[in-house]
């Protein structure tokens, strides 16, 4: 399979497209490192350190974490830690809504309603590309809703990357980072 991937890299590179092999699409991390990324992203956001919050949330969003995807989407819409881009923001939020959590689907519908038909077409196309790269099927992420307050109200989404079997987790890289790792 490695020969096939190498041949594919050569063919795709000749076409001028960046490409990453399966070996570079995922990185192995300790479970604690993943939890730390999520915690540090929250702390940075709460401290209004939007550049750091965006970088950390984007990393876990690419890995398939639905809460991080929704946060990255909001940060794009608001221009926090990244240039304002409503289309990209919508695409991330629509990707988070893949899990069918009411907060994410409701926000996606509100953003859709505010778009022109041309914007909606572009945003939907971008969301489709993101789903292929960072959706549940592409990342192997396992998500569930839970109640953080001990009530019957499901008020959060918890996602866990797939395990390598050796106690480590496989976290999907962002496409641009995977391309760098391939070079």
Description:
By secondary structure, this protein is mainly alpha-helical. It has one domain. The chain is built from 10 helices and 5 strands. It has helices at 2-14, 22-25, 31-46, 50-62, 66-78, 86-96, 102-113, 117-134, 136-139, 175-182, and strands spanning 26-29, 142-146, 156-160, 162-163, 169-172. The strands form 2 sheets. Strands 1-5-4 form a 3-stranded antiparallel beta sheet. Strand 4 and strand 5 (169-172) form a beta hairpin. Helix 5 runs antiparallel to helix 6 and helix 6 (86-96) packs antiparallel against helix 7. It is globular and about 50 Å long. Residues 1-21 have low confidence and may be disordered.
What would you report as the Rg, rounded to the nearest angstrom?
A: 17 Å
Quote the average pLDDT.
82
Provide the domain count: 1
Strand content: 5-15%
SS class: mainly alpha
Order of helices and strands: HHEHHHHHHHEEEEH
Report, as a whole number of angstroms, the end-to-end distance: 18 Å
Helix content: 55-70%
Uncertain parts: 1-21
Record the strand order, biggest sheet: 1-5-4
- The general outline is globular
Count every helix, treating DSSP H or I runs of 4 or more residues as helices.
Answer: 10
For the sheet with most strands, the description reads:
3 strands, antiparallel
Quaternary state of the chains: single chain
Count of strand segments: 5
């Amino acid at each position: 399979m490695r020969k096939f991937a190498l041949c594919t890299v050569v063919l795709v590179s000749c076409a001028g497209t960046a490409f990453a092999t399966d070996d570079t699409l995922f990185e192995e991390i300790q479970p604690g490192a993943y939890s730390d990324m999520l915690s540090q992203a929250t702390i940075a956001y709460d401290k209004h350190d939007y550049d750091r919050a965006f970088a950390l949330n984007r990393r876990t969003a690419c890995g398939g974490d639905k809460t991080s995807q929704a946060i990255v989407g909001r940060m794009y819409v608001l221009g926090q830690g990244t240039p304002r881009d409503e289309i990209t923001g919508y695409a991330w939020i629509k990707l988070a809504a893949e899990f069918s959590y009411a907060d994410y689907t409701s926000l996606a519908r509100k953003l859709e309603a505010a778009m022109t038909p041309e914007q909606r077409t572009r945003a939907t196309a971008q969301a489709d590309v993101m789903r292929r790269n960072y959706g549940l099927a592409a990342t192997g992420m396992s998500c569930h809703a839970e109640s953080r307050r001990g009530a019957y109200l499901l008020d959060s989404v918890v996602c866990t990357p797939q395990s390598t079997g050796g106690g480590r987790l496989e976290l999907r890289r962002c496409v641009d980072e995977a391309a760098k790792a391939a070079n």
